[in-house]
Design a protein that fits this description.
Structural class: alpha/beta
Strand content: 15-25%
Number of strands: 11
Shape: globular
Oligomer: single chain
Radius of gyration: 19 Å
């Protein structure tokens, strides 16, 4: 078994003067302390990449900064799914007997460490180098194509997608570390600046500085024990021109593996942390995973299903759409919130009870998917 024994996340937003390694150090040391471990007990590291610090050996850069003497260290790269994949890799290291306590960490100064044009160019590089990138498409443009397809196929409306942005902002207002906390309405989303039709400014996550970390261990900690009960992956394509007709296929495959491994089903889940880079991303996943009927994710949000007191509380820190997005740490922040909720440590955001939770991340343009089932065992 692998237990999530330590978690930590910085505030997201502006951290002027802080580089990726500075931010990762802060989150890593806080997660190790949260696990109740001495630093020397950490014997493994899976580190996320940083577009603002493209070092060839980021794993050893971070381990050197932290003063760790490791049996295993490497850098993982899988776009937005990197944090989830790193957690699975940490579990495999523990299961193989190679390590006992593995630190997973990601952090980046995407907001203050590069220009807006550089950020757009870097992210747009996920497109096909011959058939997509030369046309000038950006990540929002790729996701706008998915949004248009989703709306056409399901009959959902742009206003229903906006419900998800409003919900994430509502949740962020209760978290002191969130980047965006001003309440918004459906009208605000609909009137916000057009980015790539049908996506508007408030349908998109912000660029952030920040970091997050998780420690996975062979043994549970003294506090409420949360274990990785199930995991699954799917890598259906890289370029949007090659993606399957079913927009949710990768999510379905990864989730099916995760639920089968855990011996659970979607209806067993009482909490969720789902990747939400754009409102249509979140809608597609919620419906593909069986948490809402086709075309009805926004309606379910409006009816309260995903609120703190709903049947499946969702992204209670505000998600990427409002807590913020700084690369690898963006999804790891979802995991941190879920673990804190499962332990009963979320303060004013605390749900009634959450013994089982599902987390899902994607990298690229719905390209790579990783699903995690977390279970509280004590």
């Amino acid at each position: 078994m692998a237990y999530l024994t330590g978690v930590a996340v910085t505030a997201f937003g502006k951290h002027a003067g802080k580089g990726p390694v500075d931010l990762m150090e802060a989150a890593a040391l806080a997660a190790i302390a949260d696990a109740g471990l001495p630093r020397e007990a950490v014997d493994g590291l899976v580190c996320g990449y940083a577009t603002t610090y493209p070092h060839l050996m980021m794993g050893t850069v971070v381990s050197e900064r932290l003063g760790l003497k490791l049996k295993h260290a490497h850098e993982a790269r899988c776009g937005g799914a990197t944090g989830a994949m790193a957690i699975v890799l940490a579990r495999h290291l523990i299961a193989a007997g190679a390590c006992r306590n593995v630190l997973v960490v990601g952090g980046e100064n995407r907001l203050t460490g590069q220009s807006r044009d550089d950020a757009v160019k870097t992210l747009a590089g996920v497109g096909h180098p011959e058939h997509e990138v030369p046309l000038g498409a950006s990540i929002p443009a790729y996701y706008a194509l998915l949004a248009a397809r989703y709306l056409h196929e399901t009959g959902a409306t742009e206003a229903e997608l906006a419900e998800l942005a409003v919900l994430m902002r509502r949740h962020a207002t209760a978290h002191p570390g969130a980047q965006l906390t001003r309440p918004i309405t459906i009208d605000d989303v609909m009137a916000s600046k057009p980015i790539a039709a049908p996506l508007k400014f408030l349908d998109c996550c912000p660029i952030s500085d920040g970091a997050a970390a998780v420690v996975l261990s062979a043994e549970p900690s003294q506090r409420a024990a949360v274990r990785l009960a199930g995991w699954g992956e799917a890598h259906t394509h890289q370029h949007i021109s090659e993606m399957p007709d079913d927009l949710g296929l990768g999510a379905k495959i990864a989730a099916r593996q995760a639920f089968e491994t855990a011996g659970r089903k979607p209806s067993d889940m009482r909490l969720a942390g789902i990747y939400d880079s754009f409102t249509p991303t979140l809608a597609i996943f919620l419906e593909a995973l069986g948490f809402a009927p086709a075309g009805a994710a926004g309606k379910a949000a409006r009816e309260g299903r995903f609120g703190r007191d709903g049947a499946l509380p969702l992204n209670l820190h505000g998600g990427l759409l409002s807590y913020g997005h700084c690369g690898v740490a963006g999804f790891l922040a979802h995991v941190v919130e879920v673990v804190r909720q499962m332990r009963g440590e979320a303060g004013d955001r605390q749900v009634r009870d959450a013994p089982l939770a599902y987390c899902h991340a994607d990298g690229g343009v719905l390209s790579s998917h990783v699903g995690l089932v977390l279970e509280r065992t004590a």
